[in-house]
Every structure is written in structure tokens, then in C-alpha cells.
Amino acid sequence: MADTVTTGTAVSGEGESTSSPSATLRTGRDRRGRGRRIAERSRFGLRDLGAEALAGILQRPGRSVLTMLGTVLGIGAFVTILGLTATAAGQIDKRFTVLSATEVGVDDTGTAHGQGQQPDPAISFTPDAGARVEALHGVVHAGVYWPVPLRSPRLGAAPDLQSGAAGDGSGLAVYAADPGALAAMHPTLTAGTLYNAFHEGRQERVAVLGAAAASRLGITRLDAEPAVFVDGTAYTVVGIIGDVQRHQEMLLSVMIPTSTALAGYGPPGEPSRAKMLIETKLGAAQLIAHQAPIVLRPDDPTLLTAIAPPDPKSLRNDVTGDFNTLFLLLAALSLVIGAVGIANTTLVAVLERTGEIGLRRSLGARPRHIAGQFLAESTVLGTLGGLLGTSVGVGLVVGVALTRDWTAVLQPWAVLPAPLIGSVVGLLAGLYPALRAAWIEPVEALRR
């Protein structure tokens, strides 16, 4: 601030000035020093700037905390959103399970595309369809299955059971499935075994029951070679499936070999046509979906339609992209609200401290010193809000990850710049109030 100026001139009792050589020399030196001191401009160092900004913030701590709240919410939302989207992206691949990512379905459309024909009643899959597809590199299991075309079939543990009696299988479905399809479903046996290529080749009347179907029929043990009767035709039960990883509806059905179903009930009809279930190695599903129709029906691949799982990378990008866009807009809105709060509070502080500003100006403070002081206060508020918001955001991401048993993913580029963003928000928010404070006239300020 401005320095106090003193002179070395002596004054006599009559009011006249007296001087001596030494006094004259001293007076000359004092005048030169006074000239230097008058010419010297006031200085406002960074240390002083920081101290004044901190004093201004601590003078009204409640207001300062409320002012920072908008920035805390904005920065916290920013860090939380980027952290949760990165964490969620890492979980999409897990949620998009290996089973789903390695499953390809092939539907029998029964007619060539674009020819306007009615579906052919004959099955479009050849008898060796499973073997053909399993010969492709990347295929683990493949097989054909379909609902047996029976209208209101009578199922039971005995040939003639009345509806509602013990062992009555009313409401159960009958499926034809070859051994490859059963293997692709990843069944868990609770009793017996699955039928195999021997049963398939000889059109054996054997059946595998789902756990719910076996319970409905009252069949729990296979040592007595029980049979299930479908419209009076007996099928020896060779196995009971307790669970399947694909196609849970099979647990409430009776499964028989496809060759047996074709011989006894004919090909599948509309609208439930035959389908193929293919299990692939991880990463091969898209390629197998392209190759399977050609391998199965090289004469007319359009008779079959392959359905591959969606690309997990595309799915992840779509989900995280939408998630980022929506919530980053909310984070930006929070930051704008925070900036408005800081600007409003800083402007109110300028109006409240007009007398103080006038006093500082009269003591030698320059306009840039006043502007720097209020800019420093708003920037400190923004920085503190950014630091608190970053801490809150990181804590939320880690907390959600621990709650959901996820692996928290926090990118450095999303966390480290967050406090700086808060500082920039505070700096921009304080520009107008600081400029207004800088150009307050000292005389007018002291009159208020």
C-alpha cells in the first residue's frame, strides 16, 4: 500500500524555516528519498493475494460452503459419471455372458427369400446337419430341435391316466432334439444319461425328462426303467435333467430323438419350425453365423436364417455412449449452477465490501489489485469445490463398485483434471464481479 512520507525540514518558533549545512544536506536527501517513495507503486504479492482471498472466504464460512455446493455437485457428478461408465463398461462383458456370446441360432424359414413362396412343409435341415456344422472350426456342439407337432397330447407315467391323477403330464411339451442340441444346452443330469447317436440312428423310443416334467410325472428313479407315454406310445426314460444353461423351457418338457419324432409324428409344422442350436468358441459366433447356412444348404442358403449374438463391443459402446451423453449434460448443468452461485455470491460480497474497497483504493491499491483479490476468492472457492467434488465422486464410484461386487475403474484423465475444472469455473464466475469491484471510485465508495 502507499508509504508514509516524512520530510527533514526544521521549523523555528516564528514559523520560519531554518537550515544548516547538515540540515540542508539532510533535507536534500529526504526530498530525493521522498521522490523515490512517491514514485514507487504499491505492490500486491501472491502471498498477500492468497491471504486476502482466504480471509474473505473464512469471514463468511456458511456462505462460502453454500457457494461451493454447486461446484461440488457438478464436479462430483462429472467424476462419478465417468467413473461409473468406465466401471459399467467393464461389467457389460461379464453380464454379456460367455454362454450368450457363444450361442448361434439357425431358423428354418422353409422358403427362399424374395420368391414369395409359402413355407415348404418339409424340414430344411438335412439328417447330418449337426455333423456338418460341427466340422466348422470354432464350433463346439450343434444340433436340431423343434416342438413335436401334437395337439393336446396326453402324457403320463401310464398308458391310460385320467386327468389330474398322479403321474398325469397334462400341460407338458414334447420336443424333438438330437444329441448335439442337448449337448449345446449344457444340461446337468440328476439321474441316468442322455440319449446318443446310437439311439438317434436307430430311431429308438427313448426320452429325457426335464426336472419339472419328471416331478409332474412322478418319475424320480430310473433303476426300474420307467416309461413316459405320449398319446399311448411308450418312451423309456433314460435320463432326467436337473438344469440347463440354455433354453430353460426344456425343464418342463419331454425330449425324444429327432429321428424318432420324424418317424412317429412327421416333420415340424407351422408356426413352430425346426431350429438349430450352435455352441461356438468365444469370438467365433459372428463367423459361424455367416458360414452355417451355406454349409447346411449350399444349394439354397436362404432357406435358413442364422441369428448371432450382438457384438459385445458395439453393445458396450452404445450403452456407455448413451449413459455418458445423458449424465454429462446433467454434470454440465450442475457446473453452470455452481458457476452462477459463485458469481452471485462474489457480486454480493463486492456490494457488501464497497467501503473496504474504497479504503484500499485510497491507500494506494490499484484496480488490478482489487480485481485480483476477488478473482482469487472465486477461484479458491471453485478449487475447493473441485477437490471436494472429486473426492465425493471417487467415493461414490468405489462405494457402488463394492456394493455391486464390481471392479472400480477410474481413468486418470477423468479424475486428475477435475479440480482444475473447478478452478476454471470459479475463475470465470468471478470475472464480472471482480471487474466491477476494480472500477469502483474511491471517493464514491467512501461516501457509502
From TrEMBL:
It is found in: Cell membrane. Residues 1-25 have a biased composition (Polar residues). This is ABC transporter permease. Belongs to the ABC-4 integral membrane protein family. Pfam families: FtsX, MacB_PCD. It comes from Catenulispora subtropica. It comes from the Bacteria. Residues 329-442 form the ABC3 transporter permease C-terminal domain.
